[in-house]
Design brief:
Strand content: 5-15%
Structural class: alpha/beta
Oligomer: single chain
CATH superfamily: Alkaline Phosphatase, subunit A
Low-confidence stretches: 1-44
Organism: Thalassoglobus neptunius
Number of strands: 18
Shape: globular
Helix content: 25-40%
Protein name: DUF1501 domain-containing protein
CATH class: Alpha Beta
Number of helices: 14
InterPro entries: Alkaline_phosphatase_core_sf, DUF1501
Distance between the termini: 49 Å
């Protein structure tokens, strides 16, 4: 914890502390005048009202048992589920998703995701990139990009919040890394009981905000820190901590008791228990995500259960799929009913697909050659299926869609032009967010 104390002495350059505050304005938060002007410009930009909820399914969900049922395949491939008709004529999905089927006009099912690295991590679903051959500092997560480009909507609410818990397989609990954008743009992660620390206990706002106490230690601290970008990150953390502690907005957003019982029941509750080395089955996180977005968070990342089903694929599917169906459909309907779905994008996917052939343990193994995704909201054109796989679900037979194409599309829906925007890495080299040589926003979704 950083303790900040001070007194009334003048500064070494003969400026009074009152003058320092007047000149520095938001110095405590690390905001320079250009940053302030940039934030003001973003606040006038209609795109700055947009946001995204990223739902990661750790382990790799079985594409051929979700959105791409293969009735004509041999029994060792076909599996135990049958397709059901959705609200969109000609579009069928697995019988385990009846609620999503009734909302299919608001959804896009992608059956031909390619480009998976084959590794068990959330990184590619958060950045669009592999972990290999990263630029200095590493690729930033989409939420970190939104934090950098638009900044927070409200000083009391972080721009980026991660709800995924720490997992035994650490890469599955990744909420997103800021990469070369620096720690100032890392996700805020209120894990479990930590939410209780978001409110003041026995400390008045006046005492907490005492600028005279703050500035003495702030002056000393600046002299002790080098110029490697850490100061900016610490400044941002200070600003965020003061904003959070002096406002109830974030704590209120995480307090589901403020929601009507009928709404909580609609989302469901799930299970606050890690599934082996994977995530929890907490359906309440989906409601928290909506409340956080509504409170002003730009990006919320969360994970659900564990989908690495090398054995008992269909038993596990009958447990997890109906829960996912309930929570995601409640989220989509809730966003739509509140008039938010046009601005808020939702993506649901995992790191790769599963083998077409069912193994002797009744499971499916790793299959990076093709996987699936589901998108909603964001002002995109929904009510469709994009891509096809061959009869066995082995590989795309029509319209392969790369991870980076999905990210280019999401950035576009969030008001970011991936053809124009560059952000500097740790060596000061400007970087495009997407490979400019091969990946563009998907025309099927965005005109």
């Amino acid at each position: 914890m950083l303790t900040l104390l001070g007194n009334r002495t003048p500064m070494c350059d003969a400026l009074s502390r009152r003058s320092f505050l007047r000149i520095g304005s938001l110095a405590l938060g690390g905001l320079t005048l250009p940053q302030i002007l940039k934030a003001e410009q973003a606040s006038r930009n209609p795109a700055s009202s947009k946001g995204i909820i990223m739902i990661f399914l750790p382990g790799g969900p079985p594409h051929q048992d979700m959105w791409d049922i293969k009735l004509d395949a041999p029994s060792e491939v076909r599996g135990e589920f049958v397709p059901i008709q959705t609200k969109v004529p000609g579009v069928d999905i697995c019988e385990m998703f009846p609620k999503l089927a009734s909302n299919a006009d608001k959804l896009t099912f992608i059956r031909s995701i390619v480009g998976a690295s084959g590794h068990h991590y959330a990184f590619q679903c958060l950045t669009g990139h592999h972990t290999a051959n990263q630029p200095p500092g590493g690729w930033p997560a989409l939420g970190s990009v939104l934090s950098k480009v638009y900044g927070p909507k409200d000083p009391a609410v972080p721009a980026y919040v991660g709800l995924s818990p720490k997992t035994r397989h650490v890469p599955w609990g990744d909420n997103g890394q800021p990469g070369f954008l620096g720690v100032a743009h890392a996700p805020f992660s209120p894990h479990g009981d930590g939410a209780a620390d978001l409110v003041l206990n026995g400390i008045s706002n006046d005492r907490l905000a005492s600028r005279q106490q703050v500035l003495k230690s702030f002056d000393r601290f600046r002299r002790q820190v080098d110029q490697n970008g850490m100061m900016e990150g610490l400044d941002a953390f200070n600003q965020q901590a003061f904003g959070i502690l002096t406002s109830s907005k974030l704590a209120d957003a995480l307090d589901l008791e403020q929601e009507p019982q009928a709404v909580r029941d609609r989302y469901g509750y799930g299970e606050d228990k890690l599934q082996f080395d994977g995530s929890t089955r907490l359906l309440t996180n989906f409601l928290k995500a909506r409340r956080l977005i509504e409170a002003g968070v730009r990006c919320v990342s969360l994970s659900f259960s564990r989908w690495d089903w090398h054995g008992g694929n269909f038993t596990r599917a009958r447990q997890d799929m109906p829960m996912l169906d309930q929570a995601v459909s409640a989220l989509i309907e809730d966003l739509d009913g509140r008039g938010m779905l046009e601005d808020i994008s939702v993506v649901v996917w995992g790191e790769f697909g599963r083998t077409p052939k069912i193994n002797p343990q009744g499971g499916r193994d790793h299959w990076p050659r093709v996987s699936c995704a589901m998108l909603a909201g964001g002002g995109m054109k929904h009510g469709q299926v994009i891509g096809e796989t061959n009869r066995l679900g082995e590989e795309p037979s029509k319209r392969p869609v790369h991870f980076q194409e999905v990210f280019a599309t999401l950035y576009k829906s969030l008001g970011i032009d991936v053809d124009q925007l560059t952000l500097d890495d740790f060596q000061g080299r400007p970087r495009f967010l997407i490979d400019q040589n091969s990946h563009r926003p998907m025309p099927e979704l965005i005109s």
